[in-house]
Amino acid sequence: MNTENSTMATDSVNRGYRPSLPIYHPNGRGTGSAVKMELHPAHDDIDGSIMVTFANQIAPDDAKSDAPGDGYRRFARFDWQNRITIKLDFSDLCRILQVFRGECESIEDGKGLIHSSPGFLTKIQLRHIQEPKHGFMFEVYKNATDKSGRDACARILFSPAEAYGLAMSFEASIGIICFGIPKVIPHDVSSYRSKMRAMRNGTAAVA
Predict the structure, then answer these.
(1) Residue 174's domain spans which residues?
(2) Residue 55 is part of a domain; what is its CATH number?
(3) Which of 121, 142, 186, 196 is the most buried (most CB within 10 A)?
(4) How many domains does the chain have?
(5) Where on the phi/psi map is residue 195: left (φ > 0), alpha (ψ -120 to 50), or beta?
(6) What is the pLDDT of residues 75-129, one digit of tens each?
């Protein structure tokens, strides 16, 4: 086998794999938000998922910089310290895609997705809305079920163009979430072809 070519091909795949996507929606009122979506491929007996982390924008009065100039220049900052993270599995993503693709107006007719974890009950909503702006409202409500936790919520409005891009990205991720990242076939594929030929013939491959 040409191990040098095989290693180069594998390195190329690793360099091309970008597992996270951030989307920032700040505003002048300090009521914006941001999300980071991270793809976790399936591997071994573990199913893949997309982890979505929400962070609310920090109010403008708390985000003044000390940059020189005519007064303070305000930079949008987000409260990642108090972030909310949810895990979207295969079933969740299929329901989200139905909304993004226009097959329904909301997840489960407004019922949303319910995730239960130790100490918390989380509700995830995605709705197609027309007012006050046309887009897709993505919301998460995290409610504490014991006294040690605290309630939290966050939301972000995706434009129709962003929803289109996310739908395409989610669809492309389904295979990786279900089956993982495909392995690179070595440059010398004689052994691979032998195994495939034996499988088609219904016989065991010769070692």
Answers:
(1) 12-201
(2) 2.30.31.10
(3) 142
(4) 1
(5) alpha
(6) 889 999 999 999 999 999 999 999 999 999 999 999 999 999 888 999 999 999 9
